[in-house]
Every structure is written in C-alpha cells, then in structure tokens.
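dumping these here so i dont lose them again. two proteins, back to back, each one seq then structure tokens. dont judge the mess
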Amino acid sequence: MITTFLQAGAGNLASMLAANLAVLRARSGKRVQVLDTRDGHPAAAWSTRRAMARLWPRVAVQAGQEGGLARMVEMLGARGGDMLIDAGRRDMTSSLIMAQTAVVLAELDDNLGAAAPALIEQARLFNPGLRVLVLGVARAPCADDASVRGLAALIRAARPLGTLRLNGALNEAFAAGAAACDRQPPTHPACAALSWLCEEVYEDRGEARQAVGIRGAAALRGIW
C-alpha cells in the first residue's frame, strides 16, 4: 500500500508521522519503506540517526530529488510491502496519483487548505479511487476539529479524522532517530495517538492495489 502525506508548510511534521508509522508497521511484521523528496530530506536524516543509534527495527528511507518521485516508486515497487511518501512540493500531485491513501495535514500554512481540493481532484483524474483522510495537529492554532471538518468538506469523499494532539515526546524521539514507541509504553499519549493514526490509515486496506500505484508511477514518467 502507498500512503502519502500532504504538508505545505515548512517543518518536519509529515516526516515525523511517516517515520513513526513506518516503525509501527515494521514492528507488526510488515515490509515498509519511506520515500523522501522533501527539501533537506528530514526522513532520510532520521533513518541515518536511527541506524547510528542501533535502534530496531531498521526502516529503509530512500532520498531523492524533487521531481523524481515517479521513477523512485517504479524502481522500488518491485520490493513490495508498504510505501510511505514524504513528498516535496513538486511531487505532491504525482504522489497523490500513485497513492492509495492520502493524509492531508491541517496546520499553519493556509495555502494547503486552499490548494488541497484542487490538487486532489487533479490527481483523481488519474487515480479515482484515492482515499483522503484529513488530520489536524494540535500545535497549529487553526487545527481544531471544526477546521478539520471544514477542510474535509471541501474535498470530495474526504474523511475527517479530528485532531492529533502531539507533545514533545515525538519531536525529541525524531531528533534522536527514534520513534515515540521506542521510548514510551503503548499507553503513553503520543504512542496511543500514533497507533490510532496507523489503524485509521491502514483500516481494511489490503495490498492488492499496490500494483495500481506502480502502474501510476510508470505512467507519470510520460506525463510530468
């Protein structure tokens, strides 16, 4: 299954969520890899810190230049398993075309709220089955449940997930190459919130549609 995160603003929130979900999936025995085309490659840097800290399970993160995502997905898709895409601005539309699920992050940058419906509708011309989840983050003043529902209402068939209330544990763990679940018990608020998000993202999602994303990647090479 291919999942992409849409984050318009600066920062590494999408990278942190992708990294934490990757660790949770790996812990459950799934083969998983993260594709990182964001400026500065925060997910790839996290993976390097994780390897240096000798934390387990290891998570493969492939870094690439913005605009090269379609080729990366096509090349790596043969390995199977889950892909989590931490896409740069130039790769947002292509990541939506290749994904089965998109997680739209409602945060400080209002530009995403204005642009997300158009981006998703454009992608659905090529990927009509795209599943869209809208997630708020508590550190953004605009990201309360009402604003999440409002953004979801602008996106056809989007599902609002409410607000993920994060604390410093996630930032501290990410900076050290860890996931929240590496340092805290499952009952810790950060771990419980991320486990909930993982369940929502992968709810009733099989691996049968993985090939759809791979074919989308191949087609994109002739489009973009």
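---- next one ----
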Amino acid sequence: RTGLEFGAAPLDCSAPAPAAFATAVQAADLLAKRAAQSWSAQDTRDVLRRLARTGGDFLEPGADRLTLAFRAERLVLALDRLLSALPADERPPGSSELLSGLFRLAQSQPDFAPDAFVRELGAFDRSLGRAGQGAPSVP
C-alpha cells in the first residue's frame, strides 16, 4: 500500500504456524539488513511522506474499528520514529504538535474515530509539504 519495496520475496504462509512464523522472522531480518545497508536521510523523508498519506486505509467500508485503532497506533509510532530520525532543524514546523494529536487520537482504542484520525493525519501530511519536502497531498 505504501509503495515501499526492498526486494523481499512474498511469504509462504501455507506452512503450519510455527514454520510460517520462523520464515517471517527470517524474512523480516533480511529486509531490515537490506534497508539498513542503503538507508539515507532522503529515504526517511520519503517513507515519512508515504506513510502520512495512508489515511484512505482508515476509511475502508466495513473495517473493524478496533483493528483500525491498532493500525493507527502502529502508524503513529512509525511516524514518530521517522520524524525523530530527522535532525531537529529539518523537521517540518508544527509536525511534532500534529503528531502529538495523532497519538491522542490513537490512544483511546474503544473510542477510536477514524474520520478524526484521517483529518489529523492529513494535516500532518500537509505539514510535511510545508517543509519543502514535496508537494502537499489532497486531504
């Protein structure tokens, strides 16, 4: 969905759970090693922008609200780590405050409001564009 590709082969999950898990762990380790060998500051900015544009994933009809809340929580953690990886003077103005708002919205899983989360995620995405790191996306 994000367009991120590091040349990893698809996982075969037809094996029994322990074997599939072991395969997934090996694939994740390989993927992490490949990414670490060639990762740059521009990669950080690109992934940050791509993930900030995934709001549509939270508006899928019939999606379970609790599942969306867990996904939102993981997304916000990823955005936080990526934003923190940028030098302070390269962080877009206002992005830290917007990220705090995303954290608040993702924390209350039983009361998770996908529409509000998507609006805040769109504002975060637009803040990335204000830093001259690419064109802002359409909400």
